[in-house]
Amino acid sequence: MTLKVDKDERGLWTVLHITGELDLVTSPVVRQHVHDAVAAGRRELVLDLSEVFFCDSSGVGVLIASRKLMRSCQGRLHLILPAHGAEEGSHVNRVLAALGVRRLFDVYSDVSEAVDEEAQPLSA
Questions:
Q1: Which residue of 19, 49, 77, 96 is most buried, as measured by CB atoms within 10 A?
Q2: With a threshold of 0.90, does the pTM exceed it?
Q3: Residues 6+ away with beta carbon under 8 Å from 124
């Protein structure tokens, strides 16, 4: 399956809805979308990974690089990751947790919470 990235804007937040596999071949596409958002002056970014069913080390690398980029420009990065094993996309949550990097990210259950300034991230 190929990767699909849809962009949405919610106030100050740019939301990238990512669907498919996040791997060596497709991760540069996500990296480019993140860089394009920053180049356009967007400093609040949500990566909706709820429909990503596979993520390898290249995908994790893009997520970590995106976090670093957003922090370097005083921006914010929020991730959407399902918490339960039966839901689509839980693979990413498990991979990040297994690698010990899940705690680096502000994770939310859905886009509405991720763009809500009052909402608290899910615990790692």
A1: 49
A2: yes
A3: 97, 102, 103, 107
Who contacts 10 (Cβ-Cβ below 8 Å, separation ≥6)? 46, 111, 115
Paired strand residues for 52: 20
Position of tokens 């069913």?
Answer: 53
Helix (H, G, I), strand (E, B) or coil at 109: coil
Cβ atoms 5, 35 nearer than 8 A: no
pLDDT band at 107 (very low <50, low <70, confident <90, very high): very high
Tokens describing residue 86? 């039966």
As a whole number of angstroms, the distance between CA 72 and CA 89 comes to: 28
Please say if the pLDDT value at position 82 is more than 80: no
How far is the CA of 123 from the CAs of 56, 62, 101, 103, 105, in angstroms?
23, 22, 13, 8, 10
Mean pLDDT of 16-34: 96
Residues 31-50 pLDDT 10s: 999 999 999 999 999 999 99
Going along the chain from its start, the domains and CATH numbers come out as 4-114 (3.30.750.24)
